[in-house]
Each structure stands twice: as C-alpha cells, then as structure tokens.
Description:
Blueprint: H1 2-15, E1 25-26, E2 32-33, E3 43-44, H2 45-53, H3 59-72, E4 74-75, E5 80-81, E6 84-85, E7 111-112, H4 113-125, H5 129-139, H6 148-154, E8 164-165, H7 181-195, E9 198-201, E10 204-207, E11 217-224, E12 227-235, E13 241-244, E14 247-248, E15 256-258, E16 261-265, E17 270-277
Parallel strand pairs: 12-17
Antiparallel strand pairs: 1-2, 3-6, 4-5, 7-8, 9-10, 10-16, 11-12, 13-14, 13-17, 15-16
Amino acid sequence: WQHHSDRLLQIMEQVGWDGHWYKRATYDDGSWLGSQHSDECQLDSLSQSWAVLSGMANPQRAATAMAAVEQHLVQRQQQLLLLFTPPFDTSTHNPGYIKGYPPGLRENGGQYSHAAMWVVMAFAKLGQAKQAHQLFSMLNPLNHALTPADVTRYQLEPYVVAADIYSVAPHSGRGGWSWYTGAASWMYRAGVESLLGLTRHGNHIRIAPCLPAAWPGYSATVTLGRSRYAIEISQQVGQALLTLDGAVIAADSATFVSADCITLPLDQQSHQLSWQRA
C-alpha cells in the first residue's frame, strides 16, 4: 500500500498540476475540471486546500496553489470565499447534479462553507496567520449582519453557520441553507484547532497557535476527561518562556517539542500553563 501511495502521489504531481494550481477531476471523456483550459470550473478550492492539509503535495506548489485561491476565489468586498470559478452554465460537459443549480448558487460557484473553512485551515497550516484570521473573520456569520443593509442582503440568522452564500447578482451575499451543522463543526475546528492550535493526540494535548502578530495572545481552559489545562498564551518581544504549574520548562525538555509547538500529557490532573512566545 505504501508503494501504491507513493506511485499515486508521483502521478498526481505529474499530471494533476496545472501550472498555478492543482486540477480537480476529469469527465468521462478524459477532459479536465479545475484546469485553466476548462471552459467552466477552472479553479476549484478543494484541490488546493487538501494539497496543503494532506501534507503530501510539493510544498512550493501547495503555496502557489493557495496564492491562486486568494487571488481568484476570495472576494473581500462581497465577503465571499468561492468554492470554484467560473460556475457551470453553458458547458456541453455534464458534471452531474451540481449543474442543476443556477450559476453562483450553492455548490455551483457560490461560497460553500465546508470548503471555505478548509481554506482557512490550509492557510493556517502554511503558517500564514494573518490571512487565516482575516478569512475566518470574513466567514463569521456575525460579520454578515452588522448593519441593516447587511441584514437585508444576507437574510439569515447571524448566529448560526449557513451551508452556502450566493455569489451572483441579484442574490450575491444572500445566505442559503441555514443551521448547517456540518459547516458549523468545521468552523469550530478551524477556530480551535487551526488558529488557537489546540488539538488532542491520543493521551496528549498539542498546542501550536497560529496567531497574527497583532494579537496579544489568548487564554483557554481545556478539559478532557479528568485532565484540565488552564492555558495562557502571550505574544511579545523578548525571550520565550514556558512555565508549567509555576516551574520553568527548558527548551530542550522532552515536553517542549519546538519553538512553535508543545505537547503535554493528559494525566488526569489539573495544570496551569503559561507560554510567552517571542
């Protein structure tokens, strides 16, 4: 299976790279979706996000692909992060049921919230904290209803996540399927795991924040079973300092993994962790 995986990755890099991003798929006749040469759906965010999240793509190509997502799929003025562009409309190819939606609605070239969250997570994994946080804020439903005009445009509850947001006039900016638990859970994971950097790995908690420089830090209390960590993260100029229950943990300690990540045991005890990041 490892040999098969290596061979598959080799072929994907050989034929799946389109020059500035990764292609998405093929039609039955072998022609491409998600290629600059496609008549519609020339760039799809899914292939780019998962090139990063899988950890398997060529790092330089993965970064280039995410730059293409930012350039072509992020519409900051409209507060949209599109699934792909351009939408299916007049193509003679049949991509399936997705073409049944009008252009710009739901998966057909609108903002599909699952995929949008994966873009945030991919930028965070690349260490591009400013970009990841800006996009997370843009996707936050609260920020789609800050004024009466915003409310009229969005037309959904601002306290839950919508499955999709439309991207084509006269419905641009209007929310689609509301109360979408799948997208909400991915947004939660993007915020807690990718941005705050709090993840569980077996019997350990891993802390690897992805914070923009302007953030002073954050505090969090994590309770897993009977294990509890009260965490204080601060960012300031100076020497890095990590303390656990008041005792300084040296940088060469087995507990301290690297300058950007620490791993601590879930030992059924309560602890206080303070991490001053330089």
